[in-house]
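Task: sequence in, structure out. Protein: MerR family transcriptional regulator.
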Amino acid sequence: MHSSSYRRGVTFSIAQAAEHSGLSIDTLRYYERIGLVDPPARDAGGRRSYTEEDLSWLVFLTRLRTTGMPIRMMREFAQLRRLGSPTAGRRKQILLEHRASVRERIAELQSCLDVLEYKISHYSQLEHTFVEGITA
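Result:
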């Protein structure tokens, strides 16, 4: 689901929000409890009712978590977001710092992948030599 498929005014249950964001219902409640997510509106039955904007924010939070941003930093970002445009510079700085961290992690993983590729190639050569030695 992407934002162009939403209709204005449509709301989503906590189960739908969880499915869309890839978070569990428990994690959604936890994010609300620690201030990463504003408490959503409630429907007539008292159930959480998420908007398209809420879902977009949840997806963004999920991406930050997936890239390893600490909860502490996510909370700062969420608090600044609530304060609006005057905090754009600090929010951008947080993202720039996190991007640098993500790039370092990608380089580290690439180095690890290179070693794995080398070892796989090495063992393929050993297997080939062993099999040819038996059949020769």
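Residues 103 and 109 are 10 Å apart (CA to CA).
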